[in-house]
Amino acid sequence: MTDIAEQLRAAALFQNLDTETLAAIAECAQYRQVERDKLLFQAGDAFQSFFLVVDGHIQLSRLAPSGHEKVVEIIGPEETFAEAVLFMEGRRYPVDARALEAAQLLAIDADCFNRLLDARRGLARNLLGALSKRLHRLVQDVAALTLEDASGRVVGYLLGQIPEGEEADAEIHLPAKKAAIASRLGIQPETFSRILSRLRETGAIEVAGDTIRILEPDKLYHNPG
Amino acid sequence: MTDIAEQLRAAALFQNLDTETLAAIAECAQYRQVERDKLLFQAGDAFQSFFLVVDGHIQLSRLAPSGHEKVVEIIGPEETFAEAVLFMEGRRYPVDARALEAAQLLAIDADCFNRLLDARRGLARNLLGALSKRLHRLVQDVAALTLEDASGRVVGYLLGQIPEGEEADAEIHLPAKKAAIASRLGIQPETFSRILSRLRETGAIEVAGDTIRILEPDKLYHNPG
DNA sequence: CGCAGCCTTGAAAGCTATCAATACTAGTGG
DNA sequence: CCACTAGTATTGATAGCTTTCAAGGCTGCG
Prior knowledge:
By secondary structure, chain A is of the alpha+beta class. The first copy, chain A, has two domains: 2-145, Sandwich (Jelly Rolls); 149-220, Winged helix-like DNA-binding domain superfamily/Winged helix DNA-binding domain (Arc Repressor Mutant, subunit A), CATH 1.10.10.10. The first copy, chain A, is 38% helix and 24% strand. Chain A has helices at 3-10, 19-28, 110-119, 123-147, 150-161, 178-184, 189-201; strands at residues 29-34, 39-41, 49-55, 58-63, 69-75, 80-81, 96-99, 103-109, 171-173, 205-208, 211-214. A four-stranded antiparallel sheet of chain A has the order 1-8-3-6. In chain A, helix 1 packs across helix 2 and helix 2 (19-28) runs antiparallel to helix 3. Chains A and B meet through helix 4 of A and helix 4 of B.
């Protein structure tokens, strides 16, 4: 098995595929580096490939007519993005993709992958699963944006970042600059900072740079602004 | 071709499928009526089938811990919903589905449809297309919720409701009670009402019950609260 | 006619954004 | 090793938009 196929296997999108199929996909893929703060693609660009993050973090964002930027998602290692564009009319990327730090990616060629899609059973199913999961997360985001206030969204985000099986005394590493995370949560950086301060003052969390330790999960709730 | 197959063909999800495949799907489907305000399913219910709206409108909503209800989407005739649940872990509906008015639906059995998915080429592709489209819309929603204020979202919604090729003097019929649409837009009914009033006062629109006429599209913009 | 539900309108309170200034951090160069 | 600088984060004060609470108006139906 090639190096690339090995990387692919790590992604949820490509799990449970036979080695032959993985090898075929690997033929469609090639490595790509992006420097910190560089654009990988821009909203409106013609769609050529989708991506698997091998190392680093990529930020997907949209620009508003007013000039404000909104972070839609922050993608980390072993996660894929832009797969959905394969099936969208127009075949253009709907968002900007920017590297938050120097990142290594695998670019999977759209046309090449498309040909595999009909031939290989299970591949379409994997994609459907991946899209459904993303869909579900987005629905949750929309609900959070309207049902919860800023504190609630921050708390929800922190809880969602807790690593598996580490409920007590969890330590979270923020995957991006605080301003980017604030945007992802639909709030201003200042508000994000203030909310963390309040949580810190109540003894719920401990903040040290981009590391946050959850001390008392119970205290996270009911901290209105 | 059966009556059911004919209905299926209307949905974007089942377009460009050969008649044999359509007939096979029709075998998985059966009619279902829902009375006004009745629940079709509830968040947490075991997933058994997804739906095509033949007539009427269905509202998908989520209940917050606080007891508030948020409308995620309003589904009209020839549209499908809950397809994504087919591929989600847990196999439970993530939202409530309620009829806004007496509605007729086609319920497509999940297990039955699932078996077709592997056998029939093109079917998976259609699903992928449908999910991608929905995904894209949700991303736009998320962006709108954070990039635009309440007026901007209302205006965006109105523009999105304009029927094809009717740019000038368009007439819009609101598909649901104003309170439901307000929730969909992430605002309170009072705010929705006030924003429509302001647009009316500026001469941009004309409101008569659930019918809205766009008089001067240019005036829709730049009407801060 | 009268009731119930929905929508509209008004006034006040609350949350978040904005503007502004100060700390802090990391990387650079003297 | 320290000073400097640019970017990032925090903190403060104010303004603005939206929500909330309340009351009045409208419409359709029994």
